[in-house]
Amino acid sequence: MAQGSHIVLLGDSIFDNAAYTRGAPDVLTHLRSLLPQGWRATLCAVDGATSDGLAAQLPCVPGDASHLVIAIGGNDALQNSDLLSMPVTSSAQALEAFADRLAAFERSYRRAIRDAMALRRPIVVCTIYNGALEAERARIARVGVALFNDVILRTAIALGLDTLELRAVCNEPADYANPIEPSGRGGLKIARAIARVVGAADTASTKPARVWGGPWTPSGPLPDSF
Fold it and tell me: Cα 196 to chain center, whole Å?
């Protein structure tokens, strides 16, 4: 493990969740308690942020930051939740509507991640978790979340970035303080996952999946966009 490392959390209320934990520790507090001596963690994430708002957080990144962990996109998905109840006359019309919205999200998300990459620090991006919605809405919401996560995952693959799959981390109702925010327990699970992915915790018992994409150059377009 590197000594003197400094993890910076960027994004939305997946990390900035202190207002929802009912007095339990938030993600940042949990993470700081898990880090070995010499490691630090700083919160730059802002509750309610969308991918368009990530650029405003980058100036607060400390100069000695060693790892950037980014959880953004969930609020973008929420802003498009009307797609789940939009009246259509065919499945093709529904897919066309999703395609238009996803294309806009992809442009915003990729621009945000490229801006973060300009800081020249190792980056971990996080997928959007499924939340703890009521049963009748959860099933269709998972499909919508999967489409937004496809944008995140393809961007990460194209740019060669590590990805933290939060759908596999916060996977129980008790992980949520409300339908969309991490509880104290969920925050602990997220903090443990972050510690593992940046090398601040023992990873001997876990083996990460590896997905390889095609070649990409900073001056070229990202492949497979909508």
Answer: 16
CATH number of the domain within which 124 lies: 3.40.50.1110
Does some domain include residue 145? Answer: yes
b (16+ CB within 10 A) / e for 153-190: bbbbbbbebbbbebbebbeeeebbbeebbbbbbbbbbb
- The single-letter code of the amino acid at 92 is A
Q: How many domains does the chain have?
A: 1
Q: What is the DSSP letter of 182?
A: B
User: What's the predicted TM-score (pTM) here?
Assistant: 0.93
Instruction: Provide the residue range defining the domain that includes 21.
Output: 6-197
- Give the mean pLDDT per block of 10 residues along the chain (226 residues): 82 98 97 96 98 98 98 97 90 93 97 97 98 90 96 96 97 96 98 96 78 68 60
